[in-house]
Amino acid sequence: MSGNDDKAKIIEEILSEEKARTAAILAADGPAMQKLFDDDLVYIHSSGRLDTKTSYIDGLVSGKSGYKGFKFSNVKVRVYGDCAIASGDVIIDTRTSQLDLRFTNVWIRSAGGWRNVHWSSVKRAA
Model's pTM, two decimal places? Predict the structure, then answer.
């Protein structure tokens, strides 16, 4: 396999992990999120609020977060060895609002596979 083939395979893997991540969030599936998120997860909300792996999963499982749907667009995945960075636009529907955001999501490859280690998002300019 050439380097480009390897990158294409990793990009497919990351896009699959992104789908699994959003499915786990929408289902408030704590065990699935435990596997997907790295212990060092830093989750920076568009409001500036910061969550750790534990606080983020707890908020989702308790129903406090209230995510209802995700619509991604313009997603690009860049691969740097055992690190992959996904970025793009997302509209997130919650119980109380619709957020139009630009995001960066960082994945690292470990012995257990790809793990989500960092998310940050900001509101898109009008």
Answer: 0.92
